[in-house]
Amino acid sequence: MEGEFVCSNYATGLATNAEAAGIKGGVLLLCFKGGGTHMLNVFHLTDGRMMYVETTGAIGLFGKDDYFFDLDAGDNYLDMGTVQKIYAYW
Fold first, then answer.
1. Contacts of 22 (CB under 8 A, 6+ apart)
2. How far apart are CA 37 and CA 50, in angstroms?
3. So what's the pLDDT on residue 2?
């Protein structure tokens, strides 16, 4: 629902549902240079990698959820801006 269900709702919802299923995951808060924030999810995989999950169907994902394995400060994230800081909440 535009304007009512935003990235923080998606991210906390996925984290809550994953935890209920016995999967430990976290929520990431991305802070962009020049202002603005975005939330998404992160999971530790058994092979030692981190998997990031974007569930908003954000612009740049063509309305689809997506996952990926690399995310660092300095990256341009979905044309939202350059990531300045990343905060993880487990």
1. none
2. 21
3. 59
